[in-house]
């Protein structure tokens, strides 16, 4: 039992990654559509790349979306709208007219003609309410037929027969100006303005019911392809009619009723493909990014982002596949690059696009555009902590999307006349959404405990509490750290390493000296050396302990692990040579291990650069009369000794890069110790 537990404990990292891969596969497949995948990839106005295709079954030819929209528009234009005539309002208007007539026509000139005026007004009122009064008709076309419903009776008439409230005045003028009652025009206007009320309303419910009934009669298909008929020949251009037949066959295949057995096989196929893709990603990380692979949190972070992109894309496709480019997929390589490196960011991006190819329409176009956009993202964003770089990159990503879409449209349509300008706005939205990467990186740092260049930039602030304490308690060490930071940053820039990371590591690598600052020569301003009263072994132990003390201080101040790595490795497994030789003078059999730093060895370009820069800068203080030749040989001697001691055995650094670093350090030290002419007193 204990043997099994021991094996489990030793392999728990590998077991976790296997489980992570299985869980991720299940989640991604769960999000995928479970219909069969059409085996042919085709595009309009491009050659058919496969063998002659014959209809495997009888199937109906679906109408294109454009044809359906045209037929629907025709139905909408031809539908006869319904209006409701309210007889009660018409009766109330007539009653009000009867009651108010006498009070309006009180002048002496109308007194003897009130009966005929009243009858004339009633005739006009009957004409106004013959088909009724409506408040507004601007939403309806002129000359259109309508159905006017009076109670249980429906009458077909023209929309011009309805009167609007604005037309009442025109009707009164037309009836009275050229007639015998011209003097009564203003009185009738005043009276009708008070009594005439709209009594016709648009019956939207009944009209929509009729519209839906007519829409349901539109057939989604236009003919049938018989089994065995040739659909397209190899090399033949897929024209619009052929393209629609192929789309119909694809829809028939993907919408067919699946038995439980077929459904399970489809799911199993998806599981295999997704598992293979995720396994390839794990193998890539294991082969080329071993440090990332050994960290379960980092591997989980990468898989989490892949699942997140698949989730968002699936939701958009289910809502409306036309908006698939709204998902800012370029955030993925940006995030991975911010926490790891460009190569891993691009590989993760490509794997994600391969997975999304199962669910998006126009797979080849989508994959081409997204891969190109991902490459542009990786190539353009060199320093994410500089805000201008992100805006420039977003502009270039958006431009690439637009150019790619434009090119594909020309290939498919052979013209630019029917460009869908809304798609361009989709790409602009995608670009703007990519700017969300900065707050997202901040959230990821807090959730997963990772460190990006943005956080590293904050750590370079010498006004931070920890660096201020270092400057106050150990000013010599602080000055030494600044010099090392400048040397290391210059060397990192020259070989393409992470200059921001190595600068931060250099600033904090000696913070352990704050515990006993006067035990280190750079802080002994009084000229008193505390080591004169100590044995070489005790002195060596104090010097070596500054690494352990530095790690403890860093953890208390919540410095990231990436920075603590520089504290742990900046001396590797080298020896405190001065005190070792001093101990040998007292005892030739002294154990060298008592004078050796615990390690580990530097394991990256950045940590190796710091070891070289730290050793060279510290030892350069011993040069009494530095010259260019002396500095060059001095740098060669120190770094060659480190190489002979195999201090860079685990670092991903080449001999060529070490030679470049030597050259940079020599140049910088020559600038620091440049010779001046001796001025007379």
UniProtKB/TrEMBL annotation:
InterPro entries: HD/PDEase_dom, HD_domain, HDIG_dom, Metal-dep_PHydrolase_7TM_extra, Metal-dep_PHydrolase_7TM_intra, PgpH_phosphodiesterase. Keywords: Membrane, Transmembrane, Transmembrane helix. It holds the Pfam family 7TMR-HDED. The keyword Membrane applies. The keyword Membrane applies. SMART domains: HDc. Coiled coil: none annotated. Residues 477-619 form the HD domain. PROSITE patterns: HD (PS51831). The chain crosses the membrane at residues 15-33, 265-285, 297-317, 323-339, 344-360, 366-385, 390-411, 423-444. NCBIfam families: HDIG. This is HD domain-containing protein. It comes from Leeuwenhoekiella marinoflava DSM 3653.
């Amino acid at each position: 039992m204990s043997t099994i537990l021991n094996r489990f404990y030793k392999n728990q990292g590998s077991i976790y990654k296997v489980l992570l891969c299985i869980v991720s596969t299940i989640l991604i497949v769960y999000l995928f559509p479970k219909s069969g995948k059409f085996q042919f990839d085709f595009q309009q106005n491009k050659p058919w790349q496969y063998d002659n295709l014959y209809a495997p079954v009888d199937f109906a030819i679906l109408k294109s979306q454009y044809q359906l929209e045209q037929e629907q528009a025709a139905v909408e234009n031809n539908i006869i709208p319904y209006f409701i005539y309210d007889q009660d309002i018409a009766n109330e208007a007539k009653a009000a007219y009867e009651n108010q007539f006498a009070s309006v026509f009180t002048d002496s000139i109308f007194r003897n003609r009130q009966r005929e005026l009243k009858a004339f007004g009633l005739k006009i009122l009957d004409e106004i309410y013959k088909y009724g009064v409506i408040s507004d008709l601007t939403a309806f076309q002129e000359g259109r037929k309508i159905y006017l419903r009076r109670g249980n009776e429906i009458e077909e008439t023209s929309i011009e027969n309805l009167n609007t409230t604005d037309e009442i005045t025109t009707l009164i003028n037309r009836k009275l100006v050229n007639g015998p009652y011209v003097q009564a025009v203003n009185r009738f206007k005043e009276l009708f303005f008070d009594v005439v009320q709209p009594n016709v309303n648009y019956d939207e419910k009944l009209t929509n019911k009729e519209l839906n009934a007519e829409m349901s009669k539109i057939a989604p298909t236009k003919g049938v392809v018989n089994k065995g008929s040739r659909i397209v020949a190899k090399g033949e251009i897929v024209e619009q009619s052929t393209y629609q037949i192929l789309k119909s066959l694809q829809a028939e295949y993907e919408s067919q009723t699946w038995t439980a057995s077929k459904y399970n096989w489809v799911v199993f196929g998806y599981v295999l493909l997704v598992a293979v893709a995720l396994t390839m990603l794990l193998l890539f990380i294991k082969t080329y990014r071993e440090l990332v692979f050994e960290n379960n949190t980092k591997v989980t972070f990468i898989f989490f982002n892949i699942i997140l992109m698949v989730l968002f894309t699936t939701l958009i496709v289910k809502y409306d596949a036309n908006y698939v480019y709204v998902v800012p997929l370029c955030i993925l390589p940006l995030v991975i690059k911010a926490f790891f490196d460009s190569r891993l960011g691009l590989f993760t991006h490509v794997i994600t696009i391969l997975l999304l190819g199962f669910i998006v329409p126009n797979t080849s176009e989508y994959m081409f555009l997204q891969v190109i956009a991902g490459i542009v993202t990786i190539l353009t964003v060199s320093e994410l902590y500089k805000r201008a770089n992100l805006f420039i990159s977003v502009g270039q990503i958006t431009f690439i999307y637009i150019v790619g879409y434009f090119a594909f449209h020309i290939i498919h349509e052979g013209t630019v006349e029917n460009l869908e300008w809304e798609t361009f706005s989709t790409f602009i939205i995608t670009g703007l959404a990519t700017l969300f990467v900065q707050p997202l990186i901040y959230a990821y740092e807090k959730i997963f405990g990772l460190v990006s260049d943005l956080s590293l930039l904050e750590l370079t602030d010498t006004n931070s509490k920890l660096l201020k304490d270092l400057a106050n308690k150990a000013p010599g060490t602080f000055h030494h750290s600044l010099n090392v930071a400048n040397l290391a940053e210059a060397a990192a820039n020259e070989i393409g390493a992470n200059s921001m990371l190595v600068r931060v590591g250099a600033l904090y690598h000696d913070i352990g000296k704050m515990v006993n600052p006067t035990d280190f020569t750079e802080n002994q301003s009084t000229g008193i050396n505390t080591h004169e009263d100590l044995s070489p072994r005790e002195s060596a132990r104090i010097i070596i302990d500054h690494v352990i003390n530095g790690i403890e201080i860093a953890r208390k101040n919540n410095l990231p692990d990436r920075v603590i790595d520089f504290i742990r490795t900046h001396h590797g497994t080298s020896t405190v040579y001065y005190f070792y030789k001093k101990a040998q003078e007292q005892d030739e059999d002294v154990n060298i291990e008592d004078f050796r730093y615990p390690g580990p060895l530097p394991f990256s370009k950045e940590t190796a650069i710091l070891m070289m820069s730290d050793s060279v800068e510290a030892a350069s203080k011993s040069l009494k009369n530095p010259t260019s030749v002396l500095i060059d040989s001095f740098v060669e001697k120190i770094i060659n000794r480190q190489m002979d001691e195999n201090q860079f055995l685990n670092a991903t650094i080449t001999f060529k890069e070490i030679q470049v670093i030597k050259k940079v350090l020599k140049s910088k030290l020559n600038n620091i110790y440049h010779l001046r002419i001796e001025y007379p007193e």
